[in-house]
Design goal:
Chain lengths: 267, 366
Amino acid sequence: MKDTGLGWSTIRLATIVVCLFMFAPVAVVMLLSFNSSQFGSFPMEGLSLRWFVELWHNDAIVRAFQTSLVLGALTSMISTTIGVLASMAMVRYDFPGKRLVSTALVAPILVPEVVLAVALLLFLQFLSVPKSFPLLLAGHVIFTLPFVVLVVQARLVGIRREYEDAARSLGANPLQTFREVTLPLMLPAVLAGMLFSFTISFDDITGTLFWKPGGVETVPTQIFAMLRNSISPEINALGTVMVLITVALPLTGAALARRLAARMRGR
Amino acid sequence: MADNGNAVELRGVVKRFDDFVALRRADLDVPEGSFVTFLGPSGCGKTTTLRMIAGLLDPSEGDILVKGRRINDVPIHRRNLGLVFQNYALFPHKSIFDNVAFGLKYRRVSRSEVTRRVREALALVRLPDVEERLPIQLSGGQQQRIALARAIVFEPDVLLLDEPLSALDANLREEMRIELKRIQRELGIATIFVTHDQSEALAMSDKVVVMNHGVIEQEGTPEAVYNEPATAFVADFLGHSNILPARVRGREGDYYRVALEDTGMEILTAAGNAGPLETGAPVRLVLRAERLRLGDGHEHRDGDTLLNARVDTVDYQGQLARYFLSVAGMQLQAINAIDRRPFAEGATVQVRVRGDDCVILHGHGD
Ligand SMILES: Nc1ncnc2c1ncn2[C@@H]1O[C@H](COP(=O)(O)OP(=O)(O)OP(=O)(O)O)[C@@H](O)[C@H]1O
Ligand SMILES: [Mg+2]
């Protein structure tokens, strides 16, 4: 018993250390964003929202924010639409080459992002298409799609076909059946997919660096560019905002999805 | 095609899954207003046949007609058939009202008419006060009633039920069986009911269709399939039967005298529906277990055969007992009502075989 006790405390210690190592830097950045002094160091001299205000007045950052939001929203809409349709095809219909398509859909998760980024870039060059916002968007759709497909497919597999059979026997055509029965039943997964693809897109830097046309910056690439010059406390503030968005959004979404699912099961 | 009083007709319908034949050339009539049951063991093709009629599966060959109209190429949502599933399949995200109203939504029915008809259907299944609830808030039996209400509210041409009672416990099942039959009668709707429970089939049906391995073995009224089985399978599947290979010895008035292959013992059996049989022709004799009378000294009547048997095992079931007997080395089973106490194991009894209770099947089978 003594041995296992020791084993457990070691594990507990290791867990704490790992968590500290992962979250301490984030906590430091968030703390320092409220520091009133120019130089990010402890002990902090005072609390202020000064850097957040400065963020608000920094045109480059505001523009980057707008770009990221638009890009994220479009990515999530397109990715979710394609993902839902693809999942329907994969789970509900049979067609030749299904396994191949199924693998191709999730492959972008398995391929290292850099490789994917370079590959797409080379492909565009081969076609001599100049970089543009729609292409950046296409890139984001390609590698957020697998997440949507995986989440939605998993849910769809669990929805018994009898619901759809029943709807059709009652007179609903395939489209009406999808709208009235299939879609509402998989709504939690669809919302989760939307959030996933939004956060992944909002967060992405590797692919974005390769694909973005000149002069367009997203929040991550903007931070990256700013870091090359100096470490301004503004970046801490920006980091805090990013953390809030990428953490708060999925949490809200998850809570929403859970509430929806619970209502469907009748609480 | 003219209307010939059939709600559903199958004409040479075949269903293959790759090389596996799930249904072999089925021809079947479901008369208007009748209650027809598909009965058979698991995997015999009942669901497959029902799903083809519903439009959830395409037949490999043959025609399916509803009200005299060929519907092979009519998609399911235009077939106007009411379908009830074993697991109810109520839409979990819709209220009971919306579930029942679902079929009316696609049939140009005015709003007030929808409300009226939903209420009517709910009253018919005796669940008028659950409109606002979600399916999960109902018991299994209640959900099954709602599923039924949903399937009949739009006045379908035919009602198709795939083992609708099998998810319910025994008491509820019996209650629902009676309820279902009442509703079917009240509406006068042609109904196809799939089950592997013979008592369900015999109790509810106007016509029982006994299936085995994708073949319709026999169809007829419950009495006909029970009392005059056309094949050894039907004899064996419905109730308990003794099926004994025998040979025809000759004709004696209304009876054939046949000799059992195993023992040479001779038994008189009603010529009835057997048709002409040559002397020496191989046949099988079907003796229903509950038609064999055990006793100690039966009075002899025309067409009776008396056998001396020993009781090997008694399976006591309260008001009935099932006896396993040996008669000159041959095994027979008999089911008799118990008069005070059952015959003891090891006892010697006399078995009366009435010629009118025997059924002859041609050939020795395979
Ligand atoms: N989609 C399919 N692909 C291949 N074989 C199938 C398919 N559907 C059914 N079968 C086969 O067809 C046969 C008949 O199946 P069916 O579901 O009609 O049986 P059933 O009589 O309804 O049995 P149960 O009482 O178990 O429901 C079975 O042997 C089954 O394995
Ligand atoms: Mg079945």
